């Protein structure tokens, strides 16, 4: 509101595919290699957040419907920014259950 009151437009930045907390809570939503292993790296031994790692979230998983869309709606309605920049949107091969089910359906 303060920015808006002086004519400053604000944009919210969001890393779409990297969210350590969500990946920790929902490892089934992370990109999987062909052998089923996660795409993430182990947490740094000196990290103050024990689950902090770069797990890439799969955009075919329930992550979009259950987390991204509701949180985006909340941000847009409550904060009312001028816009939102969704970063980290690259494509990766993925063999998670969601991707395998969608591949079989097609």
How many E-type strands? 2
Q: What is the string of SSEs from the N terminus onward?
A: HEHHEH
Instruction: Specify the overall morphology.
Output: globular
Mean pLDDT: 88
Low-confidence stretches: none
Give the strand content.
Answer: 5-15%
- State the distance separating the first and last CA atoms: 47 Å
How many alpha or pi helices?
Answer: 4
Within the largest sheet, what's the order of strands? Answer: 1-2
Major sheet summary line: 2 strands, parallel
Radius of gyration: 17 Å
What structural class do the secondary elements suggest? Answer: alpha+beta
- Helix percentage range: 25-40%
Structure explained in plain terms:
By secondary structure, the protein is of the alpha+beta class. It contains 4 helices and 2 strands. It has helices at 2-5, 20-25, 63-78, 97-105; strands at 11-15, 83-87.
Task: List the defining traits of the structure above.
alpha+beta; 106 residues; two-stranded parallel sheet
Task: Briefly summarize what is shown.
The protein is an alpha+beta fold.
Q: What layout of secondary structure does this protein have?
A:
Blueprint: H1 2-5, E1 11-15, H2 20-25, H3 63-78, E2 83-87, H4 97-105
Parallel strand pairs: 1-2
């Amino acid at each position: 509101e303060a920015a808006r009151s002086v004519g400053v437009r604000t944009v919210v930045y969001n890393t779409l595919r990297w969210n350590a907390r969500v990946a920790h809570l929902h490892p089934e939503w992370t990109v999987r290699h062909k052998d089923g292993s996660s795409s993430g790296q182990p947490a740094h031994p000196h990290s103050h957040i024990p689950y902090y790692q770069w797990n890439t979230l799969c955009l075919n998983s329930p992550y979009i419907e259950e987390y991204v869309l509701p949180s985006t709606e909340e941000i847009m309605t409550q904060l009312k920014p001028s816009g939102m920049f969704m970063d980290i949107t690259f494509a990766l091969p993925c063999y998670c259950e969601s991707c395998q089910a969608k591949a079989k359906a097609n």
